[in-house]
Amino acid sequence: MNPPGNGAFPAVPPGGAPARPLPGPAFGSITTKYSGPPRPARRQNAPALIAVAHGSRDPRSAATMRAVVELIAAQRPDLDVRLAFLDLSTPSVDQVVDAVAADGHTHAIVVPLLLGSAFHARVDLPGLLDEARSRHPRLCLTQADVLGPDPHLIFALRDRVLEALRGDASPFHPGMARRLGIAVAAVGSSSPAANARTGDVARLLTALTGWDTEICFATTDPTLDKAFTRLRARGAERILVAPWFLAPGLLTDRLRDSLPGVTHAETIGAHPLLAEVALDRYTTAALPLELSA
To answer: What is the residue extent of each domain of the chain?
Structure first.
């Protein structure tokens, strides 16, 4: 797979499926099918995969992340795949690590299901893993990289936009593609540098599709209404919101409420390419362990 955020898009998506035509002016298929190898038996010595999600009081968020982890497990049935949450949802990281140790694992790869490398990935999760290592000195815990603005996730974001366009009651045809504006809406951070990195998502979506895009945030500037105004000023006749979120929740609802009547795509959710990016992070982190075994 390509490294995160390098702007290079593969001709053939992971899993060997035929390349999907890029949209604009004619939209390609939005169906992504996984056609991987026959399912092997679970490998006894393979590191467990602990997928760690943010957690939310909104039950839709936890349900979505469970569906993501089920998809990961379906793509790699040879692995012991488990889901943990950093906060507000269960099971917790401590609970899952304790269970993995109790089941006899000596290695576990912790994959943060996070789109950015912010406080949770840089401080919270490493602190939890340090505490877990003191409880389980015979369990090797390796933290993998976050998902980040991986090009494969830009494909997934594109698919969600196309699904929204196909399902919208308003008439739309391929010839209107150049007059389409996409407001890519993310969480937002107190760090301007982090927000600038998130802005790469909108630029990568433009590079992939040719659509006019603007980045906006749910918690800071620029807001959705400002992105809407900028897109209108550049000639967009139809604007759609593309949430750069893994799962629905309070913030995606806030975005919907801020501009009623505007079409919103679904969050990335249990998209096959999200599962493949998570597995890529696992494989990259596990490789040094396998080489030293």
So the answer is: 48-148+271-292, 151-264
CB atoms within 10 A of CB 237: 11
C-alpha radius of gyration, the chain, whole number: 20
26-83 pLDDT, tens digit each: 333 334 444 444 545 666 689 999 999 999 999 999 999 999 999 999 999 999 999 9
Domain 48-148+271-292, CATH: 3.40.50.1400
Query: Which CATH entry fits the domain spanning 151-264: 3.40.50.170, 3.40.50.1400, 3.10.450.50, 3.30.70.1710?
Result: 3.40.50.1400
DSSP 8-state symbol, 42: P
By C-alpha distance, which of 146, 209, 112, 151 is closest to 5?
151
Burial 167-184 (b: 16+ CB within 10 A, else e): eeeeebeeeebeebbbbb
Question: Strands across the sheet with 107-112, in order?
Answer: 81-85, 48-53, 107-112, 140-143
Count CB atoms within 10 A of the CB of residue 194: 17
User: How far is 172 from 147, CA to CA, in rounded Å?
Assistant: 32
Q: How many CA atoms lie within 13 A of 150 on its CB side?
A: 27
Measured distance CA(141)–CA(121) in Å, rounded: 15
d(Cα 83, Cα 53) in Å, to the nearest integer? 7
